[in-house]
């Protein structure tokens, strides 16, 4: 396995095209300036040792040296030993509702952002558990396959927004089905956490919950929002421009359906928690999930990485030494080398 320890250094590669552009500008300026003194062909005869090709070649070599050093600074590393790591944990799938109703602001800053913040805090407390992320609205999709790469999980969570699922609605049943399939043939203990306002538009959610329980999967639900309802904001860019309205021009109120979420948790042999303005309830659910017996999870990991920067330094040094032996003036053999001079004999 190959990786770079400091990928931020690759931004320095942007300097190379800038320098190339400056070289082109300089050469055009130089030619234009020399042309003021007379015909260009005559001027070239006054500078018989000048070699444009060698100047460009030296510039190219310096750019190769610069690129090699930048790659070396990025810290190229290769995995030197693959080993199996055993850890204890459970398989956990989080199903996050990303429908427009999750933008309601009865929980600040809004339901979706508060849920994302809580998931990230949960990830920071995981040890050995495998985690997967399902997003759903009118359809359900796997945002992150089940993994122990917690850094990747937090990155994926931070990018979630209602726009990633084009079909609006709240297909909780489909989300459960996708989560169950996402576990694969794993023999570990499993749990599903559904974070939603509960306004299901499909109707088969209890059947899917029952099917999951028969496979030994517990289902927990977290209700986001208030039962009395709140309007759904509409945004243009980052600016709120109003609230969603129905066909009659009435403001749509998004209400938390606690009854459905309680039923799902009951059928799923889990528990229901309603989020508040200060606590989403995810920590309470995780405390209960932590009581599930953890099974041994075996993974393959690259345990050691060896630095490989020296190869790129050596590559750059080779071209730097080569540059020292290339002169901008034409050498004697280059003067005699005239492949397109058909008059010479």
Describe this structure as you would to a colleague.
The protein has 345 residues and is α/β, with parallel strands linked by helices. It folds into two domains: 2-75 and 308-336, no CATH class; 84-299, von Willebrand factor, type A domain (Rossmann fold), CATH 3.40.50. It has eleven helices and 13 strands. The strands form four sheets. It has a six-stranded mixed beta sheet with strand order 5-4-3-6-7-12, with helices on both faces. A three-stranded antiparallel beta sheet has the order 1-2-13. Helix 3 (52-73) packs antiparallel against helix 10 (309-324), helix 6 (172-182) runs parallel beside helix 7 (205-214) and helix 7 packs parallel to helix 8 (258-267). The model is unreliable at 337-345 (pLDDT under 50).
Describe the structure using short key phrases.
345 residues, alpha/beta, Rossmann fold, three-stranded antiparallel β-sheet, 13 strands, disordered C terminus
Topology:
Blueprint: E1 2-4, H1 15-35, H2 40-46, H3 52-73, E2 76-89, E3 91-97, H4 111-124, E4 130-136, E5 140-147, H5 150-158, H6 172-182, E6 190-196, H7 205-214, E7 217-223, E8 230-231, E9 233-236, E10 239-243, E11 253-254, H8 258-267, E12 272-274, H9 282-289, E13 295-307, H10 309-324, H11 332-336
Parallel strand pairs: 3-4, 3-6, 6-7, 7-12
Antiparallel strand pairs: 1-2, 2-13, 4-5, 8-11, 9-10
Helix pairs in contact: 3-10, 4-5, 6-7, 7-8
Report a brief summary of the structure:
The chain is α/β, with parallel strands linked by helices. It has helices spanning 15-35, 40-46, 52-73, 111-124, 150-158, 172-182, 205-214, 258-267, 282-289, 309-324, 332-336, and strands at residues 2-4, 76-89, 91-97, 130-136, 140-147, 190-196, 217-223, 230-231, 233-236, 239-243, 253-254, 272-274, 295-307.
């Amino acid at each position: 396995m190959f990786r770079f320890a400091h990928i931020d250094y690759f931004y320095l590669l942007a300097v190379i095209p800038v320098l190339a552009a400056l070289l082109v500008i300089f050469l055009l300026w130089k030619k234009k300036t020399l042309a003021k003194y007379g015909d260009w062909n005559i001027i070239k005869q006054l500078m018989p040792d000048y070699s444009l090709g060698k100047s460009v070649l030296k510039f190219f070599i310096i750019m190769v040296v610069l690129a090699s050093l930048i790659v070396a600074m990025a810290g190229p590393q290769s995995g030197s030993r693959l080993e199996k790591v055993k850890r204890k944990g459970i398989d956990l799938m989080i199903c996050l509702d990303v429908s427009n109703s999750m933008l309601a602001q009865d929980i600040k800053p809004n339901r979706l952002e508060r849920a994302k913040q809580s998931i990230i805090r949960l990830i920071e407390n995981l040890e050995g558990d495998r985690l997967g992320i399902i997003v759903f609205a009118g359809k359900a999709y796997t945002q992150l396959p089940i993994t122990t790469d917690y850094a990747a999980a937090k990155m994926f969570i931070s990018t979630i927004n209602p726009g990633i699922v084009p079909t609006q609605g709240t297909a909780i049943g489909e989300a459960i089905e996708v989560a169950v399939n996402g576990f694969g043939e794993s023999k570990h203990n499993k749990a599903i956490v559904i974070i939603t306002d509960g306004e299901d538009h499909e109707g088969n959610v209890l059947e899917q919950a029952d099917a999951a329980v028969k496979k030994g999967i517990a289902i927990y639900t977290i209700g986001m929002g208030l039962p009395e309802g709140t309007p759904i904001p509409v945004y243009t860019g980052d600016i709120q421009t109003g609230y969603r309205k129905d066909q009659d021009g009435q403001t749509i109120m998004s209400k938390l359906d606690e009854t459905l979420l309680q039923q799902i948790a009951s059928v799923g042999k889990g528990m229901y928690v309603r989020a508040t303005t200060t606590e989403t309830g995810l920590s309470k659910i995780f405390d209960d999930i932590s009581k599930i017996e953890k099974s041994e999870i075996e993974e393959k990991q690259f345990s050691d990485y060896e630095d490989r920067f020296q190869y790129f330094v050596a590559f750059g040094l080779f071209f730097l030494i080569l540059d020292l032996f290339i002169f901008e003036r034409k050498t004697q053999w280059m003067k005699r080398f005239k492949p397109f001079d058909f008059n010479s004999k």
